Amino acid sequence: MRTLEDILEEYEFLEGDERYRLLIELGRDLEVMPDALKTDATLVRGCSASVWVYPTETKNNGNLHFLADSNAAITKGIVALVIAAVQDKSAEQVANMDVIGALAPFDLKNQLSSNRTQGVPNMIALVQEHAARLAAV
């Protein structure tokens, strides 16, 4: 998965439909989330499309690793942006990170309809709550 900084560098050079295409491409590049993990427990509430996020821990260094998916192409791209911001960081880093600030340069609220972005805060909250639980252990 590309870093958020790499994605932003490309995103800034694009306009309109090209940005949509980039988001769709990012969604396609997400690591496959097995259907068995797409349950009510991993469903992000408040999204217009179905979004699932499943947190795991990388075995080699204990950093967090997330699997995620959506049933809508653009939403899946937004999911990929959120995941790129937090992927493979420590639980403490993710729990204390300003994810909304990290995503601010993408100006998603002005680029996309409110229906597409309404669940982003819920997705971020879910990711950070999981990280905070692990960081406290």
Count of DSSP-assigned helices: 8
**How would you classify the quaternary structure?**
single chain
Reading the helices and strands in chain order gives: HHEEHHHHHH
Q: Spatial order of the strands in the main sheet? A: 1-2
Explain this structure.
The chain is mainly α and 137 residues long. Helices cover 53% and strands 10% of the residues. The chain has eight helices and two strands. A hairpin with a 6-residue loop joins strand 1 (51-57) and strand 2 (64-70). The longest helix has 17 residues, at 120-136.
Could you give a short description of this structure?
This protein has 137 residues and is mostly helical. The chain is 53% helix and 10% strand. Helix 2 packs across helix 3 and helix 3 packs parallel to helix 8.
Question: What's the SSE blueprint?
Answer:
Blueprint: H1 4-12, H2 16-28, E1 51-57, E2 64-70, H3 73-86, H4 91-96, H5 99-103, H6 108-111, H7 114-117, H8 120-136
Antiparallel strand pairs: 1-2
Helix pairs in contact: 2-3, 3-8
Short descriptors:
137 residues, mainly alpha, two-stranded antiparallel sheet, 2 strands
